[in-house]
Design a protein that fits this description.
- Its main location: membrane.
- This is Major facilitator superfamily (MFS) profile domain-containing protein.
- It is a multi-pass membrane protein.
- It contains 22 helices and four strands.
- The chain has 511 residues and is mainly α.
- The N terminus is likely disordered.
């Protein structure tokens, strides 16, 4: 008997695809080697190959014998092998491999959809690392270049100029071209702009403003692209948890940036912050190219069971051909999102960009203390965002996200202790994070097919709040006080609460 016939005889004994009556017992008791099986499998197409093959059979007496990774004692069945009964080669090994137990390493069994979620989380971590480093570096930079508070506010707001330009465009690109290319482009673009910031500052204020605006262009498309990716990859039942995890990457990015920036500034000078943070984007981009796909349908490595799970329960839709702007803008819940996003982001971006300055000017912390204490509110946000994502997926989360920050900001004018002020700021940021389970998940609730465009639309209003609020804060501080800054934020939080509860919905309004 030649090797091929012998292999077929043994490996097909359990498949019962051959029904003739008998095989000599001496043949069934013989062992076939793993090397022989391996060499035979490699003669066939790659979809029949595996890194590790373990075959388990039993002999007539029911005892097992082992040879390396292969259990090869075969329990005989009464059949004979004839030339007419041997199937074609592809059928032989397809049936044979159905009875082979495959051993996979644990990382090969990790769900691919959660790899996408983790990569989006990492992108947002880098996003905020590169964004908040300026809020620390601006202190030594303003001392070196002699900038007044109004100029500092202008520099801080210049990021949002570019950020504003690409919100709607980013949503359109993501929903038409796919989230993989758009998010990959975004990370590379803003990483280059980050690394060029020290060079631009030395050339002059106009160059710095343009560079920061360019950085905003890159970060502006990140959120719509991420929203597009998750709408295709994550089932509805896991949506809030995945969104909470991804957005917590923003907060942990702030924690990381604020924690490491003071050390880098003291040790290597303020330009080192931009060089080091900007270089991390290239590492992320290399992993993104090799692991990400626009959708489960385009991923050849996705396991069939996971693909079935995602496609049967996700909000994934085919790329859109046209955008019904008139229909979208005619819906009251859409305008509730836009107004609420503006009100929410006014307070959030002020705290994001001005908190280290507040700690330094009001609480009299030095540069290192300002950076480290700024970590506490953002760490609280990271925890709260994930907590909110697990406990609820309802509109009440956004009410907490509005009224909580409003209440704690009003307390800042009544406290004298720096420790209590930090506590109030942390509680404000912690309750603000519940917005991830309200405002930021509502786009997929009401318009799953246009979620990227809708997020770009509402986030445009949110970024406009960043542009106006960050610049206005510098003006208010030059002519007023921090109490006036917080009063404006509290007023807008209350407006957002009213609009959200009157007009928003958790039901789908657009197909």
């Amino acid at each position: 008997m030649n090797a091929e016939t012998f292999l077929i005889t043994n490996s097909l004994s359990l498949s019962s695809s051959l029904t003739s009556p008998k095989v000599p017992e001496s043949i069934c008791r013989r062992r076939f080697s793993f090397r022989l099986l391996w060499s035979e499998i490699h003669r066939y197409p790659s979809n029949y190959r595996r890194d590790l093959v373990t075959a388990e059979f039993r002999n007539v007496s029911g005892k097992r014998r082992s040879f390396g990774k292969v259990w090869a004692d075969v329990k005989p069945k009464p059949f004979e092998v004839s030339a007419d009964s041997v199937p074609t080669e592809s059928v032989k090994f397809r049936d044979a491999l159905n009875d082979i137990v495959l051993e996979e390493k644990w990382w090969e069994q990790f769900p691919k959809r959660w790899i996408i979620v983790i990569l989006c989380f990492s992108a947002f971590l880098l996003c905020n690392m590169d964004r908040v480093n300026m809020s620390i570096a601006i202190l030594p930079m303003s001392a070196e270049y002699g900038w007044n508070p109004t100029t500092v506010g202008l520099i801080q707001s210049s990021f949002f100029w570019g950020y504003l330009l690409t919100q709607i465009a980013g949503g359109i690109w993501a929903d038409t071209l796919g989230g993989k290319a758009v998010l990959g482009f975004a990370v590379v673009w803003w990483s280059i702009a980050t690394a060029l910031t020290p060079v631009a500052a030395k050339l002059g204020l106009p160059f710095l403003l343009v560079t920061r605006a360019f950085m905003g262009i890159g970060e502006g498309v990140a959120m719509p692209a991420m929203n597009n990716m998750l709408s295709k990859w994550v089932p509805v039942s896991e949506r809030s948890r995945s969104l909470a995890l991804v957005y917590s990457g923003m907060y942990l990015g702030s924690v990381t940036g604020l924690a490491f920036s003071p050390y880098l500034i003291h040790t290597y000078g303020w330009p080192s912050v931009f060089y080091s943070f900007g270089s991390l984007g290239t590492v992320w981009f290399a992993v993104w190219l090799s692991k990400a796909s626009n959708s489960p349908l385009e991923d050849p490595s996705l396991r069939p069971a996971e693909k079935k799970l995602i496609l049967s329960s996700s909000l994934s839709k085919e790329p859109i051909k046209s955008i019904p702007w008139k229909l979208i803008l005619s819906k009251a819940p859409v305008w509730a999102l836009i107004v609420s996003h503006f009100c929410h982001n006014w307070g959030t971006f002020i705290i994001l960009t001005w908190m280290p300055t507040y700690y330094h000017q009001v609480l009299k912390f030095n540069l290192s203390d300002s950076g480290m204490l700024c970590v506490v509110p953002w760490l609280t946000m990271a925890i709260s965002a994930n907590f909110g994502g697990w406990i609820a997926d309802t509109l009440i989360m956004q009410t907490v996200g509005f009224l909580g920050p409003a209440f704690f900001l009003t307390q800042l004018s009544h406290v004298d202790s720096p420790a209590v002020a930090v506590l109030c700021m942390s509680c404000s940021q912690g309750t603000d994070a519940f917005s991830q389970s309200g405002l930021y998940s509502n786009h997929q609730d009401i318009a799953p097919r246009y979620s990227g465009i809708l997020l770009g639309l509402s986030n445009t209003a949110g970024v406009l709040a960043g542009v106006l609020g960050t610049a206005a804060t510098g003006y208010i501080l030059q002519h007023g006080s921090w109490d006036n800054v917080f009063e404006v934020s509290v007023g807008l939080y209350l407006v957002g609460t009213v609009v959200w509860n009157l007009f928003s919905t958790g039901e789908k309004i657009l197909d």
